[in-house]
Amino acid sequence: MKKIIICESCGAINRIDKTKLSASGAVCGKCSKDLDTSAKVQSITFDKLEKIIQHSELPVFVDAYADWCGPCKMYGPIFTEFAQKNWQSAEFYKIDTEKNPMISVKYGIRGIPTTLIFKGAKLEHSQSGVLQVGQLDQMLSIF
Fold it and tell me: What does each C-alpha distance from 134 to 5, 60, 70, 85 come to in angstroms?
């Protein structure tokens, strides 16, 4: 299985074999800069999300949020904690719905925060509201 790593220098999407994630020396295939393979949630654009879900072998969890949203601010740390715990089992991203309105149009987001789960380039689950780590664990076990 391969994990998607987005280059912080050029924004290119890189696919790295999961067994090589802990080894140092992973470099971007486009700009040859070192890749950060640590567990973290990256902010992405709608266009980048569309490319990621097409190429991901792992489930893709997306936190759709807005900066002004109080519940989104509560959910961000929960989503990040879950992502750090499960970073080798799935892909984790966040997307600002204010800066990327097409996500709401395409995937029917009516309230935020909304967690979207993609598998095999298809939206498998969408749930609005603040979720707890246990709920996210249950969702990951399904996919």
Answer: 26, 17, 21, 12
CATH topology of domain 1-38: SH3 type barrels. (2.30.30)
Which CATH architecture fits 40-142? Answer: 3-Layer(aba) Sandwich (3.40)
List residues with catalytic annotation.
69, 72
Give the pLDDT confidence of 96-116 residue by residue, as tens digits: 999 999 999 999 999 999 999
Would you state the structure tokens that stand for residue 42, as one six-digit string?
């990256």
Q: Whole-model pTM?
A: 0.90
Residues with Cβ within 8 Å of 5's Cβ and at least 6 positions away in sequence, in order, are 13, 14, 15, 16, 26, 35, 36, 37
Q: Which residue has the tokens 């892909």?
A: 91
